[in-house]
Amino acid sequence: MLDEQGRDALAAWYRASARDLPWRRPDFDAWGTLVSEIMLQQTQAARVAVEIDRWLERWPTAADLADAPTHEVLRQWGTLGYPRRALRLQDTARAIVERHGGEVPRAVDALLTLPGIGDYTARAVAVFHFGDRHPVVDTNVRRVVARAVHGQGEAGPAKRRDLADVDALLPAEPAAASVISIALMELGALVCTARAPKCEACPIADACAWRAAGYPPFEGRRAPRQSTFAGSDRQARGTVLRALRGVDVPLAEHELGPLWPDDEQRERAIASLAADGLIVRDGGAIRLPD
User: Model pTM?
Assistant: First the structure.
């Protein structure tokens, strides 16, 4: 458990060592924070840092994105991966305009009513932009807590207690709690990493139960590993979308044969993309939605 001294050390480490990321700039608004959190859900921070300013230059407000052609939204999303997030983000923008006058709401309960906004994203916006006090739990935070609090080398699958564990580490004052929240996340990303933790550089090493126990091996149930990307249906879907993003006219489905020769998998990719609303099938041709 972190005491006041440990929290002070963690906060000081964060202020000295945090990465310079766009969404941490003082002038970054609530809409930019929400966009960045959706992009960061399944994409590395370094890639999002390259794209986020371009995105916000084009659609600086929720109203701008709400009015944008969907095919342009998908083109701008580019190679960030999991493009359904782009559709959900546009749906979120429209809901913000319709329900909140174009302003991102502050309350977690209000954020949770927006399309595609789950518990993590709602709490992240409330904490990292508005400075409110809520436990925010991602993979990095869960790993820090597993080691520092529970003496386990890995976090294993998500547990009901995760939010309570993190809440217990936060100071009572909201602004201070917000700093500790982002510091825990940064610690897991930079120091308390999955494969090669840099314990000698950890500001809370003296409070770490895993270190005190002699770094015992993890004996619990591990979280399932993500399936291989190469040759997967996901790669096939990405190939189809990439081809469509590169042209301004519909493509005949047979034109995709050289790009993905496996007929069955290519058809499966096209059908799933159409079902997700990412493409439109029209008489043997496919195109991005309007």
Answer: 0.91
Compute the 3-state secondary structure of the chain and give helix, strand, coil in percent, each to the nearest 5: 55, 5, 40
Cα(42)–Cα(78) distance, integer angstroms: 14
Q: What is the dihedral of CA 225, 228, 232, 236, to 10 degrees?
A: 110
Alpha helices in 226-284 (DSSP H): 233-245, 263-275
Could you tell me the pLDDT band of residue 156, with boundaries at 50, 70 and 90?
confident
Q: Which residues are catalytic?
A: 37
DSSP states along 78-137: TTSS-THHHHHHHHHHHHHHHHHTTPPP-SHHHHHTSTT--HHHHHHHHHHTT-------
pLDDT tens, position by position, 233-285: 999 999 999 999 999 999 999 999 999 999 999 999 999 999 999 999 998 99
* Domain annotation for the chain: domains and CATH numbers: 29-128 (1.10.340.30), 233-287 (1.10.10)
Whole-angstrom distance, CA of residue 98 vs CA of residue 62: 10
> How does strand 251-252 pair with strand 280-282?
unpaired
Q: Which two tokens stand for residue 280?
A: 């439109």
What tens digit of pLDDT does each residue of 42-59 get? Answer: 899 999 999 999 999 999
Kind and range of the H or E run holding 286: strand 285-287
* 3-state secondary structure at position 284: coil
Q: How far is CA 74 from CA 65, 205, 246, 275, in A?
A: 12, 44, 11, 16
